[in-house]
Amino acid sequence: SEPVALYALGLGDDALVLAHRLGEWITHAPELEEDVALGNIGLDLLGHARSLLTYAGSAWGTSEDDLAYFRGESEFRNRQLFEQPNGDFAHTIARQLFASVYFDGLYRALRRSTDPTLAAIAAKATKEVDYHLDHSVQWLLRLGLGTEESHRRMQRGLDAMWPFVGELFRAETGLPEGGVAHVPLDVTDGGTLGGVVVDLEPLRSAFDEIVPRLITDAGLTVPTVPFARGGGREGRHTEALGPMLAEMQVLARAHPGVTW
Amino acid sequence: SEPVALYALGLGDDALVLAHRLGEWITHAPELEEDVALGNIGLDLLGHARSLLTYAGSAWGTSEDDLAYFRGESEFRNRQLFEQPNGDFAHTIARQLFASVYFDGLYRALRRSTDPTLAAIAAKATKEVDYHLDHSVQWLLRLGLGTEESHRRMQRGLDAMWPFVGELFRAETGLPEGGVAHVPLDVTDGGTLGGVVVDLEPLRSAFDEIVPRLITDAGLTVPTVPFARGGGREGRHTEALGPMLAEMQVLARAHPGVTW
Amino acid sequence: GDGRRRFEELLASESRVEPTDWMPAAYRKTLIRQISQHAHSEIIGMQPEGNWITRAPSLKRKAILMAKVQDEAGHGLYLYSAAQTLGIDREEMFDQLITGRAKYSSIFNYTTPTWADMGSIGWLVDGAAICNQVPLCRASYGPYGRAMVRICKEESFHQRQGFEILLALMNGTEEQRAMAQESVNRWYAPALMMFGPPDADSPNSQQSMAWNIKRFSNDELRQRFVDMLVPQAEILGVTLPDPAIRWNEERGHYDFGDLDWTEFSEVLAGRGPANAVRVSRRRTAHENGAWVREAARAYADKQATASAASRASAAPEKIAS
Amino acid sequence: GDGRRRFEELLASESRVEPTDWMPAAYRKTLIRQISQHAHSEIIGMQPEGNWITRAPSLKRKAILMAKVQDEAGHGLYLYSAAQTLGIDREEMFDQLITGRAKYSSIFNYTTPTWADMGSIGWLVDGAAICNQVPLCRASYGPYGRAMVRICKEESFHQRQGFEILLALMNGTEEQRAMAQESVNRWYAPALMMFGPPDADSPNSQQSMAWNIKRFSNDELRQRFVDMLVPQAEILGVTLPDPAIRWNEERGHYDFGDLDWTEFSEVLAGRGPANAVRVSRRRTAHENGAWVREAARAYADKQATASAASRASAAPEKIAS
Asked: Chain A contacts of C276, Cβ < 8 Å?
């Protein structure tokens, strides 16, 4: 149904945008093993994105590529955490830590969705996200407890990404005003999504329990910076997304309608 | 005439691409004075670019913006030095040093062009480039003679930009195979450009005399890395230009034919 | 004492207080806060517009935008200089900024998702800034008032450029007109809030007005701004997103609706769209540039030592004596 | 002695030499050079393709490309491991790479200005690599041969993916077809040069063949490659940029034209399109990542100390005794 598709679209955008950011690391990582590891995580996320966007698009007869390449910035529905620039390695680890805790809770719960496609996507994703979380936690410890410099940078990374944590657990919303390209405007939240979507409140509680402990175990301080306003699900983004999409979409847009 | 226009197009692209790179620094510079200084140099270069592209376009009835925003990577004729990424501040200073010495010789000589428009553009540019060169030289000294770290980084910057010096003094060429958008294909190098264009040989001699002295005065070593193949004037570019153009052109291309 | 009497006389005669004049500690403190906040606002204000330098859709607009953002850096530098005459270091002020201890105008915590925002910032934000700042050209503190004269001149130029950006969009395609209107919708209320809370809730204003470093109340300035905007919006063909706007014959002013001050305090409290990014971008630039500034200092020191040594060796007898 | 005899026997019987076996110093040295150069080529070879990860025109192609570049990093890591069994440190090899003292395949000094280059690299460059590497699966040195088995499997997958990219372009619009042809024009000759200079100019080959770490001569491999390409080019519908290509009934092979070996030596000498960029990109990544690696080391040391201490405190009597 269309509300379900809209839900899948949001999750798909989260995964796509973060996958793209991780792809930017390749050939720039601090060691070859991290070229591989960040690439792996990015690939997993890209896989989730493709499944979710394909599923979303099937409700409207549109393809994953139409959705990825031919929507504008204000039509992207990803939450803002995922679009944040890579920064240094510690920034990337902080972003990935928060993202992985979020995805972990989300996909675990989504396995019990009454929507069989979403449940199947989630079942596959859960195992992968497990590894992603472990990767982030290991690096959180190494950087937090490693050297003075790495400690300082890791704290900066956490502080920089923290404002975007608040938005992760805010309720899903409808379409942004003006609609979304390739998505018909008359989608309304008519149907009940009761058993389909994940209740975010328990995820927030889990996050609030797990993450502060991980941070303090790594000798770091839980950030106190306020949460940003957010609004990614309504198409409101930070200034980082526009240039990212310019690069991501440039070739596809130069040749609309062709096959690659 | 068309060969003159083609010459102006190359010079205009040099200035445009470097101006864009300098614009990328704004709000990221190591101190506010450098936000201002790099912005100033960028603005001057953008001014040169606009005059040169407007003049080039007048031969074909096309505008500066058509040329800047609606040509693809292989149609850009800038020499490769100018498209090199900013890197750290020392990379930018190295690029600017080589660029300014080149522009300084070029515009001084071009003031005596038999083409009055080019001569006028050059006359104005000469004074500005004088300041650009001074800015680079001052920073070359500060970084070369400042701290151990700045010395190391400045040497890296020089080494990284040096391969693109060779191309600066190679002869101007005709159109790349396949032509250039907004530039008719039948341009031939029929006319003699004798008194119009600048002979690059004396510029090279001047460069070879000035630059090694500047570098050694700053306690640094003249790089010995080989020159890259180049080919910017024939539309062959390093991998840095494509993503830069994706960002630069994204908005204009999303709304072709409109006025801003 | 004499100093205080002279200070009172200067204020009474609408004259300038200069750095060497005696002034009350609270006056100095208020000015330092006000001028440095203004400087910080210029510096942070570079970012929302800086966001479009690389994507400006024509070379002319690119040049204008680069020049504008650069002017803002220049304004920041003048204002830091003005504040320095009151006995505070630039390093100290800048450190307050990048550690998040200093305030800057909350308007710059909004983001610029579209090119039309370059128009709205010029027309609305710079417009509001001018309404605020023109009276400050007559501020009692000399260096501040003089800095404001120069800044206001450039700001009004910027406002016109913003207006022109919107005008070009409104004369353009349907898409461009929509882009302009959508942007004005987002910036209108935040721009009105730039004048600060309603007079009833603005306790510091009285003292600042007595010191001639604030000339009109927040609400007076806001009214002046709305009165200026309405006819300009008509020329542009954009709709100001406030259905309550109408001409009030009796007051000789435009009436307008109440503002959402909860929104204002949310952004002020750090929960706006971009608070997190603004300070940290500048701090990152500063930290990444530390080695550059150190090099410049080290080089300057070496030069100073070398020239002292060369002076010394040029005059050996004197040293020996 | 015994070792040498056994070594000769292993070669004669086409068996594997293992790390613990005796081997001639020159054999060891040659292998270290060859394996580490191969590893470096994989690492540097990530860049020309990495250039298009952010711009891949469909999500499927993006995923395939990311996976491929990542495979190359993996190949680099296996090969470093294989070389390490010969007694050289990975740090030492990597340092040779980023300081420009080590060689890597010259083909990666070409640039990838268009998406079609992702196709050409797969089809032509990986194709040539496979021709080179399949015989190396039988290389006499065990760890190398086994690494090559795994690598060849993935490479042939990569080659097919490259072919498919070109096929999609050739089945596409006029612009896409032109993009594919232009790219093949650029990569064809450099790919043929990947087999090294003509046999007459390749002095090291004899010894390597005797040691079973090279199985066919440069020219034999090049011929094999051309024979493979021509029919594939026909399926694709691209023209190989060599008018001399024609079937030679008598030889049972395709004839092809001479290559421009000046071009080859220019690129080898560092004057190619991207030599300058390749090594310095990897070096910059390495330098920017120094603090990360230091942190990992420091953390590992602390963990080791802590666990030693906890073992110690868990068994106090033993320590005391």
From this structure: 160, 162-164, 225-226, 228
| Structural element, H or E, at residue C254 | strand C253-255
The answer for residues whose C-beta is within 8 angstroms of residue A74's C-beta and 6 or more apart is A176, A178, A235, A236, A237, C113, C114
| Adjacent-strand bridge partners of D248 | D253
**C-chain residues near A227 (CB < 8 A):** 271
Distance, CA of D95 to CA of D91 (rounded, Å): 6
d(CA D246, CA C42): 70
Task: Give the list of residues 6+ apart from residue A17 with CB closer than 8 angstroms, or none.
Answer: A76, A78, A82, A83, A241, A244
Tokens of A154: 């890791």
E runs forming strands in chain D: 246-248, 253-255
- What's the pTM? 0.94
Amino acid at A227: F
Q: Is A156 on the interface with D (CB under 8 A)?
A: no
The ipTM is: 0.93
* Cross-chain residue pair A239–C280, CB shorter than 8 Å: no
Question: Which residues lie closer than 8 Å to A88 by C-beta, 6 or more apart?
Answer: A153, A157, D288
Local confidence pLDDT in tens for the 321 residues of chain C: 789 999 999 999 999 999 999 999 999 999 999 999 999 999 999 999 999 999 999 999 999 999 999 999 999 999 999 999 999 999 999 999 999 999 999 999 999 999 999 999 999 999 999 999 999 999 999 999 999 999 999 999 999 999 999 999 999 999 999 999 999 999 999 999 999 999 988 777 788 888 888 889 999 999 999 999 999 999 999 999 999 999 999 999 999 999 999 999 999 999 999 998 999 999 999 999 999 999 999 999 999 998 888 887 776 555 444
- Residue numbers of C between 242 and 301 with CB closer than 8 Å to A: 266-267, 269-277, 280, 284
Q: CB contact, 8 Å: D190 with chain B? A: no
Nearest alpha-carbon partner for B197 in B1, B45, B59, B58 = B1
CA B144 to the chain's CA centroid: 24
Neighbours of B73 (CB within 10 A): 18
Neighbours of B103 (CB within 10 A): 29
Measure CB to CB from residue B247 to each of A72, A247, A254 and give the nearest one. A247
Half-sphere exposure at residue A47, Cβ-oriented, CA atoms within 13 angstroms: 18
